[in-house]
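Support reply, case 0932

Customer input (verbatim):
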Amino acid sequence: MQTFVVAGGCFWCLDAVYRVLRGVQDVVSGYTGGTAVDPTYEEVCTGSTGHAEAVAVTFDPEVIPAGVILDVFFTLHDPTQLNRQGADIGTQYRSAMFYDGDEQRALFEDALARARTYWDGEIVTTLEPLGTFYRAEEYHQDFFAKNPGQGYCLAVAQPKVNKIRASYADYVIAA
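Our regenerated output:
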């Protein structure tokens, strides 16, 4: 198994998208990249902790290649928006990839290079060393599945899930 930690806006969307892919064993929503110890959602939302809303995606590279996990990341959010995704604004919504060692950093750099070929404009995704990853509160875990009728899920997360289902059909779990 391999685990990547990525941030690209609200973690509810990232969580929802990665859960529909074959080979993904676990997705944990959490906070990383900041200075506060064991931050809460409310603290992270202020932007004062330096943390990003992120997900730790654990997957089997024999079932879904690492490159696909990373290409999905660059498909499901807009990496040209600095410190925001749509109406979610602040450093906690930044586009970032948190690497754990030189091998992951190289994989992330390759994914960034691929993304530059299909996104117009400058990609602002940062590569940051993975520090402590704090698991978010339980109500954030698998939020989309638990709250399918919630307004944000309908307006923002569902279209992203649909986009990934269409773009990566070979890797999607049969409904």
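We compared this against your earlier run and they match. Two observations from our side: Strands lie at 2-8, 24-32, 52-59, 84-85, 88-89, 95-99, 126-129, 134-135. The chain has a mean pLDDT of 95. Please reopen the case if you see a mismatch on your end.
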